[in-house]
Amino acid sequence: MALKAANDASVQPPVKPEEQELANKREEQAALESELAERELRSANLRAELGAFERQYLHFVGTCYAELDEYKAQIAERLAKDQPGNERAQQAARDARARAEETKSTAGEKSPDEPRAFQASPELKRLYREVAKHIHPDLTADREDRAVRQELMARANEAYERGDETKLRKILTQYECSPEAVQGEGPGAELIRVIRRISQVRGRLSEIEAELQDLLRSDLYQLKSRLDEAREHGRDVLKEMVEKVEDQIAQAKRRLTDSESAPR
After folding, report:
1. For residue 146, with 0-12 CB atoms within 10 Å meaning exposed, 13-18 middle and 19 or more buried, which class applies?
2. Cβ pair 147, 178 in contact under 8 A
């Protein structure tokens, strides 16, 4: 009798097909979400690196070009003033001034602090992966939940670019404690949700691959790659560019001084 009772107790009810399929799909979903988190991290990292590089470039080179174009505009305006009847000189002065204003606007005001290159810590990367796994908008089919996730993900991207680990932790905690994170019950309904999430993740993976390719083909990335490669060979191309423009600025200053001191 005791043996029979023990055997009965050890018999497990058969797993329903939908439960087995749900388990399989959950494994697939988990693998895809991990891949998505890695891709999102790569994309965020690349955007942050390019953003930091652009700020460095504008800080060193952009402001030099702005100064050079300002001198060129002053020279052109001086020539136009000396030749009021020369329409070509007048147009050249207008073009030079417009170019100087555009360059100045692009370069912005030069900050006294040198911009730093972007370097993410292992903990920052880990936190971003967790945020992407739990909060990414493409992991839900609910419209309201998606809107919440989009806002949080945008904030997470900004925090990542700033290297703000504390902010990333707060964003993750905020969502995990929200009502939107509560899921329904029942293997049938959950299976449908998981299948749809898998489809959404696959779609996002395709999108992010296209976004990454756009970044990798961008002029900014190509410039950064050339400078990085040169740096590996001991050349500071950014410094060389600045020195070249500074030499042109010195020439422009002399030309402007000469034009101002020339007899009328």
Report:
1. middle
2. no
Give residue-wise pLDDT tens across range 207-254: 899 999 999 999 999 999 999 999 898 998 888 888 888 889 899 888
User: Which residues lie closer than 8 Å to 140 by C-beta, 6 or more apart?
Assistant: 146, 149, 180, 197, 200
- What's the token pair of residue 61? 């080179």
In order of 12, 94, 157, the CA distances from 160 in angstroms are: 48, 43, 5
Residue 36 scores a pLDDT above 80:
yes
Let me know: does 159 contact 171? Beta carbons within 8 Å. Answer: yes
DSSP per residue over 28-56, as a string?
Answer: HHHHHHHHHHHHHHHHHHHHHHHHHHHHH
Residue 69 tokens read as 């174009």
Q: What is the CA radius of gyration of the chain?
A: 30
Mean pLDDT of 80-105: 85
175-192 per-position pLDDT tens digit? 776 655 555 667 777 787
Q: Compute CA distances 119 → 46, 163, 164, 219, whole Å.
A: 11, 8, 12, 21
